[in-house]
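I am writing to request your help with a piece of structural work I have in hand. What I wish to show you is a protein chain and, alongside it, a tokenised description of its three-dimensional fold. Could you please explain, in whatever detail you think fit, how the structure tokens follow from the sequence? You will find the record immediately after this paragraph.
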Amino acid sequence: MFSCVVLKSQTKKKYSKEVENKITQVENHLASWVEIENTPKWNLNERMIFYKIEGLSIAVIKDYKLEWAKGYGWADSAESRHVTPATLFQAASISKSLNGIGMLKLAQDKNIDVNRDINSYLHSWKFPYDSISKGKKITTLNLLSHTGGINVSGFDGYQKIDSIPNIIQILNGIKPANSDAVKSVFEPDLKYKYSGGGTVISQLIIEDVLGKKYADYMESNILRPIGMQNSFYTNTTLKSKFKLLATGYNGNKEVMMKYHIYPEQAAAGLWTSPTELSKYVIEIQKSLLGKSNKLLSPEMTKLMLTPYLDNSAALGVFIEDKEGTKYFRHGGVNEGFTSLYYGSLEDGNGAVAMCNSTDKTILYEIINSIATVYKWKNFYKPELKKVVKINSSELKKYTGKYTSNDREYIISQVNGDLFLELSGQRWQLYFTSKTDFFVYQAPEIINQFVFSNDKIQGFRIKLNGDKNIVLKKTE
């Protein structure tokens, strides 16, 4: 049962009045990508209740230092365990950022060449090249930048009682693996396509080249050197860490057996906290300036932060250019967990937010609040919209089922408002005209109802560029 109704930090650390004031401001200025006229900012407590977030944790970086870290709500409500700055969450796809460093350090130590065919380093398994790759070879740079033309975007994980597949079974897509075989879907170096499958290949490269377990390499060469003392990639948890682990939730429902296991460690297996993950962000920021070389040289760090093929996907990170001010970032979603971090390339600002919920929207709202309070350059510039009220009697014509290929959307009316439901998620619709609407959870996407003779035929989703998705009203 969802029970996070008291917003109380579970840390004994004392901060200065100035920092405490900023913490209070952050907690009371959560904001979306869009601002509605005459609508006040949200506070953290009400947004946790709104999104049914059991617990979350935040760390804020200023001037290349951790300024503050706090935990809110429950790490496990049934056990009455509060989130503290030491609570560990599944980092999900943020695992790929640390994995990127692991691979680049392998190259820095002259164990691999990031421009060579990955099969030069794979011994226990070979990538199954076929005619789809058109004779082109996949490199480590392709794996880290998602430009190898490789399938399998993400992974569902396994329950603790399941048979856990080994990495070869995962790559071959054979039982007990629950994901498809990793293979080419188009030629490398053609375009970006997010691939957790490609990241798992990099995990095997580390094991094959060094002859040691991936988790051991990451612990001794990446995590511990920068002070991430409690973070780990292993599938089995030390008893000393049990009480640090957050339990995952989907809404108010606890994930079966508390959390899933991800043998796809490089892609989704990292357990960490915002406090410890901030050490990674700071290390990258300092390394870029030549002020720290605990992991990578400034040259290798610059390579990591340089988009490979398009304007955002770099090596284990994504780069956002905010009107000339650049930030590196990554997010993650595992069953019952979400995470998000941002770090500036120029001035030592950053933030990490993690929660034990599958809905990640609140994390962006938190980052927007931090960026506003700490005056991050060019970061938060919301769209201003004026919402119009549709007469309650008119709303009924919008309700019903809408379909597109294998997807079914349901629009329902609740207390004078419309809500869009898809795959268990429910989002409120905000109208800017009789036909146009937006939802907070879909940034900058325009949605438009299609009318014919005052009867709704369906609605259109206008994505980036010219791509549209048309959904037909079926009932």
Observations:
- The radius of gyration is 23 Å.
- The longest helix spans residues 196-210.
